[in-house]
Amino acid sequence: MTKLSQSHYGAVVVGGGQAGLSASHYLSRHGIDHVVFEKKTAMHKWRDERWEAFCLVTPNWQCQLPDHPYDGDDPNGFMVKDEILGYLDRFARKVNAPILENTTVTALERAGGVFRVETTAGTVTADAVILATSLYGEPDIPRPAERLPPDIVQIHTAAYRSSAQLPEGAVVVVGSGQSGAQIAEDLHLAGRKVHLVTGNAPRCARFYRGRDVVDWLWDVGQYEITVADDGMGKKKHDTNHYLTGRDGGRDIDLRAFALEGMALYGRMSGVADGKMLFEANLTANLDAADRVYNGINCLIDRHIAEKNIAAPPASTYVPVWKPEAEPTELDLKAAGVTSVIWATGFRPNWSFVGLPIFDGTGYPVHRHGVTDVPGLYVLGLPWLWTWGSGRFLGVGRDAEFVVSELAAWAASPLAKAG
């Protein structure tokens, strides 16, 4: 841990996750004196907000942090939690960032030609600032949670560890994104009765035509698609595809879970009188996820045909189960529900930023991490520039670009003029 030993820095980095430490790596390479402020501890989300059976969804070879590629002996496998932490700890030691942990940035403003950064450890100024706090700030729990019966245990995915921490009884998982689907599977495998509330999350095959789908998508160039190429404007908030790397990797098929006893519902619309209420869109949600699944496979089919690659034959997913009806409510007591897990994502917290970089939704406006405020940058966001941004695969390259832009600006007459 670095003490706040000076009042001015060439750069301040807010956030000590993989994005912030990647920025520190390149700032050091450019010889820019800097400090990293982290409100908890470095990489704390990986250590403190992952369940016991958590593993990577993308193959290990995609772990490409700056000067720290995957260093194990199973590049096509999927690291489990302890292995991920080991990989990140080795990266942190290698970077040796000047980080001040347990230090919250409370205000950021522009004053006298420099940035003024107020923290719980004191106030400093800086020539430049990189916001590397990501979108995964605070757990986002919807207001209907307040109307659940008081005897039902409620936790967010950030606090889930295993089925053993929950009281006996059925569990409702609200949200079928990557975390929700995997936690629903974890509970299902533990023998729990699971009620899964679905949304618009797409799904993806784990293996197709003899290879991991991620390997195919890398060859196709999917991870190199930029926001400019894809015509998606300045931001991208797609829900991640659900699949898993557990036990060597496999599909997550909610329809197959339903055949095995998992209860599925459409999007939650509210809570009233001890009942959870749902929209009548379960069929639509499942069908939409399958269209994405088959669409990705068709993309791979075209690539195989165009390149004349020898591969096992193509196939199309055919639903193994279809809802007989659209359930619109669940009586929690009658169903024996004792726990609800909110797999409803996170909300970013940029409330400390007192500078005009946000759009009408509160999202920072930028191009490849460069904002309209000279000397202020963002890093670690999904689709910061490519489909690989924000992941272990792409965050290092984004950091290299952002820091090179920062270094060029710091050396410019504009920066020197304040």
Architecture overview:
The chain is α/β, with parallel strands linked by helices and 418 residues long. The chain has two domains: 8-137 and 348-416, 3-Layer(bba) Sandwich (FAD/NAD(P)-binding domain); 139-342, FAD/NAD(P)-binding domain, CATH 3.50.50. It is 25% helix and 20% strand. The protein has nine helices and 21 strands. It has helices spanning 18-29, 44-48, 81-95, 178-189, 213-220, 254-259, 282-307, 395-410, 413-416, and strands at residues 8-14, 34-37, 64-65, 68-69, 99-100, 105-111, 114-119, 122-131, 138-139, 153-156, 170-174, 194-197, 207-208, 211-212, 263-265, 268-272, 275-278, 329-331, 337-342, 346-347, 376-378. Strands 1, 2, 5, 6, 7, 8 and 21 form a seven-stranded mixed sheet that branches. The chain has a five-stranded parallel sheet with strand order 10-19-11-12-15. The protein has a three-stranded antiparallel sheet with strand order 16-17-18, with no helix packed on it. A hairpin with a 2-residue loop joins strand 13 (207-208) and strand 14. The model has no long low-confidence stretch (mean pLDDT 95).
